[in-house]
Design goal:
It is a single chain. By secondary structure, the protein is an alpha+beta fold. Helices cover about 45% and strands about 15% of the residues. Helix 2 crosses helix 10 and helix 5 crosses helix 7. The longest helix is centred in the first third of the chain and has 17 residues.
């Protein structure tokens, strides 16, 4: 869908006027202003205000909050016009938007890999209240998204979280657990971490066949890497994903579209094209 179909003329005009007022700002600062206004317009003014206030904490700019601001704005454009748009915007407007942020980020990755994403409101029913469903070529997968916030690497924390999330998935259908890991663990810096995560995932899946795969995601500052193919999400941020498949799944599922190690992010989108048009209009 083109940005002209997502953004109305009046909103474009108001953003053009705002960019004219900050003509002395650099390009990235202007981009953040646009992102904040998109979040306010499509998701929640309160969320936009909270993100703006959280940019600077203790006198330092939070790169993580800046990154989330950009990703949220891109998400509104990415999902606009889809069947899941309203549900994802509803989740993001909640007070606890961090959980919803991980869910939408995960859903976008699967969607970009060729899977249809179906998200519905929470039911509160155990084993039926997973985050969203995937469909592709006759296959259906239930997805539960989670994140870990322990200050240092903990095999036990990962096992416990995977076990808890497994109980959210129906016992007689194939599912995937998408687990976001802290950047502070530094797992993106070494191939040894891949082996450790594989051992944990495979040991966990030996006790279950409903979980056909475990996927780990790690957000990090990409300028900490000396080299490598990086799909840049925003200024100095990217996401590394690893997926490990169950050797004895309840139902065989073709995961080739998502089983490679990837640096993933929202690609250049209609938001970026609209931003370029706004800059031209504001000159």
């Amino acid at each position: 869908m083109k940005y002209e179909d997502i953004i109305g003329r009046s909103f474009s005009n108001s953003m053009t006027a705002k960019l004219k007022q900050v003509s002395h700002f650099d390009r990235y600062q202007k981009y953040l202003i646009v992102c904040l206004n998109v979040i306010s317009h499509h998701i929640s003014p309160k969320l936009s205000d909270r993100l703006f206030k959280s940019f600077i904490s203790g006198g330092e700019v939070s790169d993580e909050k800046l990154w989330k601001c950009v990703m949220l704005a891109r998400a509104t454009f990415y999902w606009y016009g889809t069947a899941t748009y309203s549900e994802f915007m509803r989740r993001l407007s909640r007070k606890d938007f961090e959980t919803a942020f991980e869910e939408v980020l995960a859903a976008s990755y699967f969607h970009r890999s060729g899977w249809e994403v179906i998200a519905k409101p929470e039911t509160g029913v155990k084993q039926g209240d997973f985050d969203f469903r995937l469909k592709r070529n006759g296959s259906t997968l239930n997805v539960e998204v989670t994140s870990i916030h322990a200050s240092s690497f903990s095999e036990g924390a990962i096992f416990n979280k995977l076990g808890k999330k497994r109980r959210q998935l129906p016992p007689d259908e194939p599912g995937i657990i998408y687990c976001s890991l802290p950047e502070s663990w530094g797992l993106h810096r070494s191939q040894e971490s891949n082996r450790l995560l594989e051992e944990i995932a495979m040991a966990f899946m030996r006790s279950t066949n409903r979980v056909v795969a475990v996927m780990f995601a790690m957000n990090f500052h990409y300028d900490r890497l000396a080299h490598g193919p990086i799909d840049v999400a925003s200024k100095r941020r990217a996401t590394l994903s690893l997926i490990f498949e169950n050797l004895d799944p309840i139902v065989p599922v073709d995961l080739r579209s998502i089983n490679a190690q990837n640096f993933v992010a929202y690609p250049r989108s209609e938001l970026d094209k609209w931003f370029e048009w706004l800059l031209w209009q504001a000159e």
